[in-house]
Amino acid sequence: MARKPKDVTVLHGHRVVTGPELRATFVEPEEALENPVRTRGRIIHGVVLVLLIALISAAVVVALAIIDGRIKLPTAAAGPAEIVSLCPSDTYEYAPTGSVVNVYNSTATGGLARTAADELQARRFVLGAVANKETSYSGVAAVISGADGRQGAFSVQRNIPGTDYFQDSREDASVDVVLSTGYQQMVAGDLVNKEPGLLTCPRENKRIADKEVSPVPGAK
Fold this sequence. Notes:
This protein is α/β, with parallel strands linked by helices. Helices cover about 30% and strands about 15% of the residues. The chain is rod-shaped and about 155 Å long.
């Protein structure tokens, strides 16, 4: 008798699961593969990953540029130039021709600055500006200069006794003279003391001025 063909789907009394049946068991339903929530999550994850990589790359590039000096980080703004707080103790020669002198009138007397400027020019000072200027300073006159203008300021003080010297942060040798309510007139030309001497700073607590704000405290 011919033997009955062996059933390959049965092994030792147990049904054998075929490959197609196994794949069909584990394959996700079509609806799951097209789940919009899952798809959106994957897109967001990818975008975040790309941005993170770009940020890290940019940080590395900037850091290398700073190290190489191609990018300079901003620094704190420099403070105002240092101003000497005490009256200069150096001795100065009388030298009227060394500095440009600006003459200002802070009084109600018209033409005072022009009259004083003409006298200073006749005494060989080099004139700059001649104008009116408001100030809270009271006295004979305020004489203002930077460190390079001290000799010129000394020479001006010898012609206008009783003035108060102020030093500001200017870098040139110019001198400002602000005539105030105490000003009467200059000493006669032939009586000017031309011996070397010191600047006169009787008002020590008001002597410093900031040119960026005003020529003397309270001026505008």
